Amino acid sequence: MLVALSGGADSLALAAATAFEAPRAGLRAGAVIVDHGLQDASAEVAQAAADRARGLGLDPVVVVRVDVDPASPEGPEGAARTARYAALTAQASALAASAVLLAHTLDDQAETVLLGLARGSGAASLSGMAAEAGLFRRPLLGIRRTETRAFCADSRLSFWDDPHNLDPSYARVRVRQRVLPLLEAELGPGVAEALARTAEQLREDNDAFQRMIEELIEDVVEHVEAGIAISVAALEANPLALRGRIVRYVAAAEFGVALERVHVQALLRLVTDWHGQKPLDLPGFSAAREGRMLVLRAAAPTA
């Protein structure tokens, strides 16, 4: 297995714990350090993290430099995340690793839930980060950030504080520095833990919905030219929450599109409020009511 190591307290604590536990479990553990090149001396920071990983006994230890486009539509933070996960996935494949360990903590989970709430996200987003997601594992989701810093201090492990984690231009930093402390001060301690529990409960609900959809989907859809059709009767027979999830699932699976709530509502009006509307033009596809079917077809390529 590989630890994704930045050199910060969270990932360094995870690296040290993994180096201790892996041999006792009969596992081989290494580390991957991703240098995003977004700060001065980023190469030196990456090399220092690699040296600490080797000092802990992790092997192999790999430093990967990635290119991040600050002008990306994802924003610099999103572009860096995309590049980082791509690099970690590529290294896991190259080194035949069975898992990549990420050092997200309970605090990161709480921040994710608060950001989702502020953006009006659905249950899938509010369920936060999964402890297991394919190749990736997050074993510290029940651990507070204060604990990882204390662990490093007790273990005499010097860590790097990323200046981006103090930059209030990032929404996540404002949540970390201002919003969560204010909630704790006004509502009492335990807010972060409560948000993390909420994420866990929503993830259980979301997983149950997902299993229901996967069981239903083959019976309610059929392929048509350049697209897919969903039975209107089947959608009408299910609760509103499940209808929305079905159309979201189909749009993502067939066209690679993550629908916003306004798109889902417009689609469902073709099911429950049908009065001869024109086809809808949605991101990546069109939708029309054809008899007792809701037909979704890929958008025609632009010249």
Q: What does it look like?
A:
The chain is of the alpha/beta class and 303 residues long. 52% of the residues lie in helices and 15% in strands. It is built from 11 helices and 11 strands. The strands form 2 sheets. Strands 3-2-1-4-6-5 form a 6-stranded mixed β-sheet, sandwiched between helices. Strands 7-8-11-10-9 form a 5-stranded antiparallel β-sheet. Strand 9 (280-282) and strand 10 form a beta hairpin. Helix 8 packs across helix 10. The N and C termini lie far apart (46 Å). The mean pLDDT is 91.
Could you give the distance between the termini? 46 Å
Can you summarize the main beta sheet?
6 strands, mixed
- Pick out the low-confidence regions: none
Instruction: Indicate the proportion of strand residues.
Output: 5-15%
Radius of gyration: 23 Å
- N-to-C SSE series? EHEHEHEHHEEHHHEEHHHEEE
Mean pLDDT: 91
| Cα shape | elongated
Output the number of helix runs: 11
Short recap of the structure:
This protein has 303 residues and is an alpha/beta fold. 52% of the residues lie in helices and 15% in strands. The longest helix has 30 residues.
Brief descriptors of the model:
303 residues, alpha/beta, 5-stranded antiparallel beta sheet, 11 helices, 11 strands, 15% strand
Write the layout of secondary structure elements.
Layout: E1 2-4, H1 9-24, E2 30-35, H2 42-56, E3 61-65, H3 75-94, E4 100-101, H4 106-118, H5 123-126, E5 132-133, E6 136-137, H6 145-154, H7 171-187, H8 191-220, E7 221-224, E8 227-231, H9 232-236, H10 240-255, H11 261-272, E9 280-282, E10 285-290, E11 293-298
Parallel strand pairs: 1-2, 1-4, 2-3, 4-6
Antiparallel strand pairs: 5-6, 7-8, 8-11, 9-10, 10-11
Helix pairs in contact: 1-2, 1-6, 4-7, 4-8, 8-10, 10-11
